[in-house]
Amino acid sequence: MNILLSNDDGVLAPGLTALAQALSSIATVIVMAPDRNRSGASHSLTLSRPLRVCKMHNGFYSVEGTPTDCVHLALRGYLDVKIDMVISGINHGSNLGDDVIYSGTVAAAVEGRNLGLPAIAVSQVCGTDNKIEFYQTAALVIKELVIKLKKVPLPSQTILNVNVPHVPDSEIKGFEITRLGSRHAAAPIEKQKDPRGHPIYWIGPPGAEADAGPGTDFNAVIRNYVSITPLHLDMTHYTMFDDLVNLVK
Ligand code: MN
Questions:
Q1: Which of 18, 101, 175, 217 is the most exposed place for a label (fewest CB within 10 A)?
Q2: Beta-bridge partner residues of 146
């Protein structure tokens, strides 16, 4: 099995290395990732300039582009091996509920799906002070999942969004299949001044959980379950059809 691995935290991120190491014992792993942290890049493609690729000493490919660029490049002509699955992560921090819209981690998996492959996005929930003490739990979880998927493959064009609680492997209670919860609106922007007195603005952190009840991804990780949310990309709001048909009559 050939796995394409990418992320949005950049090619030097410890979560990427941990996952590459864990998966290399069960599959051939090819890593192509952004040259720097592109968290929040969502599904952006670089169209205004060409992309450069650098092969690093550890064999990872570093790309001067977004997570989506990496997967697109790899699957649309850069690699001459057939890829069977795309995995993105391990992200530093959860991607729960509305986060999946902004996430570059999820976007890299979505690009794999768009190009016809099954794909997994994996995120490690942070511990206190947004720190992550270990990636080993998430690495083992994904290894276990890939071993299962070797026996019962995911249908192509399926995306799994996986979030792993910040506990040692022995404290994980199991897997829970979940739906996306949701967050309150993000904190307000923060206005500061640069050293020359000009105003600058920081985007605020994500809002606290709003819909985090039973069955949601938020709820699973709080209870030390690995959350697996199957995602699909049809954003059509079907229940609005009748209202809109009447509106435009
Ligand atoms: Mn990230």
A1: 101
A2: none
pTM: 0.95
How many Å apart are CA 245 and CA 249, to the nearest integer?
Answer: 6
CA angle centred on 231, ends 43 and 106, rounded to 5°: 35
Does residue 145 contact residue 158 with C-beta atoms inside 8 Å?
no
Say if residue 97's pLDDT is above 90. yes
Residues 110/44, Cβ–Cβ less than 8 Å: no
Map residue 176 onto helix, strand or coil. Answer: strand
Q: What is the pLDDT of residues 188-209, one digit of tens each?
A: 999 999 999 999 999 999 999 9
Whether the Cβ atoms of residue 124 and residue 15 lie closer than 8 Å to each other:
yes
CA 70 – ligand 1 centroid, Å = 15
**Strand ranges for the chain from DSSP E:** 2-6, 28-34, 53-55, 61-63, 85-92, 119-124, 159-164, 174-177, 182-183, 190-193, 199-202, 209-211, 225-231
Distance from Cα 42 to the centre of ligand 1, integer Å: 10
Ligand 1 centroid from CA 39, angstroms: 4
pLDDT tens digits, residue range 23-73?
Answer: 999 999 999 999 999 999 999 999 999 999 999 999 999 999 999 999 999
Tell me the CA–centroid distance for residue 10 and ligand 1, in Å: 8
Residue 158 has pLDDT above 90, yes or no: no
Ligand 1 centroid to Cα of residue 176, in Å, is 23
